[in-house]
Amino acid sequence: MRVLFATSEVFPLIKTGGLADVSGSLPSALQHLGVDIRILVPGYTAVLNALTDLHHLAHLAHLPVIGHAELLLGTIQETQVKVIVIKAAGIYERAGGPYADANGLEWLDNPVRFGVLSKVAAILGGPNSPLTDWHPNIVHCNDWQTGLTPAYMKLVEHAQAKSVISLHNMAFQGCYAPSWLPTLGLPSTHFNPEGLEYHGQLSFLKAGIFYADSITTVSPSYAKEIQTPAFGFGLEGLLSKRGNELKGILNGIETKEWNPKTDPHLVKNYSATQLAGKKQVKAALQERLGLEINADAPLLGVVSRLTHQKGLDMLAPIVPQLLDAGCQLALLGGGESELENAFRHLARNHLGRVSVNIGYNEPLSHQIMAGSDMFIMPSRFEPCGLNQLYGLAYGTPPVVNATGGLADSVIDTNIITYKNKTANGFVMSEPSSASLLHCIKQALNVFKNDADAWRQIQKNGMSQNLSWDKSALEYLAEYQKLLA
Ligand code: ADP
Asked: What backbone torsions phi and psi does residue 434 show, to the nearest 5 degrees?
């Protein structure tokens, strides 16, 4: 089994969100299962800097717009997974993020940047590959950035490898003007609803869903939800048509990276059987963030993109009531400026009780995850969500909305689930501020009045096997089915 795992971000080389975490850990778990896997990633400056052992692998010609590119081969030290990097300075080596500049404006040449990524993946899976000693039999694509790969494989490269596309978030589709078709070397004869077209535009994601041999998404609930208008972002019809080839596999977490027993970002490590260390982590976090150092004050943690999806606009208006109930809030995130400002305003008005850090900060994200008493995640939709899984692993029970991967991983605390020791968090009845407030108050009730029950809920989450072991086996089964 040889798999090319094509992705636009991979931890620890470059990360904006959950896709990077999955791209960092799933290939590693598959490698442990004996899969010969290589990651394909654009040669952003950060990637070139992070991989110290890069060496020449091959030259590629006839790429859209840029013509030539070089392929380099390196290894992620932490996991020993091999990475093929597309070196193309003109489109990838620049300051800013993988999708947007420092001001959050999308790169105008994203169709080229990800068209090239898609094309290279397709070439490597087909008869025109310049690699002589390694030919994948599966090309595993991820999200819209590699959505054109299955189309190139079928329509242009006549690739022998099978293609899988994993949907990490239907909200991002990569839709561009039809004039990009000839520029990207795609046949205009396939620009119709039974092909590359989506409402008059070229849709990278739709192309992936239409032409891939198999479709996966990152939780069983999300697999069902995206076949409905409320969650399918217009592609629900196509997804339900392809329902037989669509499978939901819940993400795991990288337990080397996210483990309170070994996490180097914490002042003290701890475990389910030695929870005392978590108190020290909380005190250190309160100190670092300028919050009142108070072990009894319930500390609510948030690490998130600040977007409509994540539902934190439901949290902002109820913060005063939560503070009245004795809570503190530690928020780390960035995104929509209105929401950033609302939280900044709360922090200014409640010094010592509300801490807001706007920006991206990996160590602080670990410290908030570990030092908080509960993790707040009221997402309106959530394909899988990793932060609630980190919350479970860190003894920080998540408070979540019942959607997608949150519904598949967080079990609400009630008499039955408490007795059978499955309760691991708190689940809202609907996505609203009132429901979020009610749910947090239920959690507070246990936290403040029943320390034993709280510890049990923490332990239930911490003792779950959240690693990739099981999910990686499911991906492997999916590959095997395609090759059978
Ligand atoms: P999504 O991919 O939709 O943003 P996930 O919960 O699946 O959401 O994954 C988010 C990942 O990004 C987690 O690893 C989380 O810790 C991280 N993250 C999000 N925002 C920040 C931030 N501001 N600073 C550090 N890490 C962040």
From this structure: -60, -45
Does ligand 1 come within 6 angstroms of the Cβ of 260? no
- Ligand 1 centroid vs 261 CA: distance in angstroms? 21
pTM: 0.94
Q: Which of 172, 218, 289, 305 to mutate to test the pocket of ligand 1 (most atoms within 8 A of CB)?
A: 305
Residue 263 lies in a domain: no
- 10-residue averages of pLDDT along the chain (484 residues): 98 95 97 98 98 97 97 97 98 96 94 98 98 97 98 98 97 97 98 96 98 98 98 97 97 94 98 96 98 98 97 98 98 96 98 97 98 98 97 98 98 97 98 98 98 98 95 97 96
Cα of 56 vs centre of ligand 1, distance in Å, is: 33
Q: 434 C-alpha to center of ligand 1: Å?
A: 25
Name residue, tokens 């990207």. Answer: 184
130 and 229 both lie in a single domain: yes
447 & 477 share domain: no
Same domain, 131 and 151: yes
Query: Domain range spanning residue 432?
Result: 276-462
Helix, strand, or coil here: 122? helix
Q: Look-up: residue for tokens 């636009």? A: 8
54 and 131 share a domain? Answer: yes
pLDDT at 443: 98
Q: Which residues does 405 contact at the CB level (< 8 Å), separation at least 6?
A: 218, 219, 221, 222, 250, 251, 382, 383, 384, 385, 388
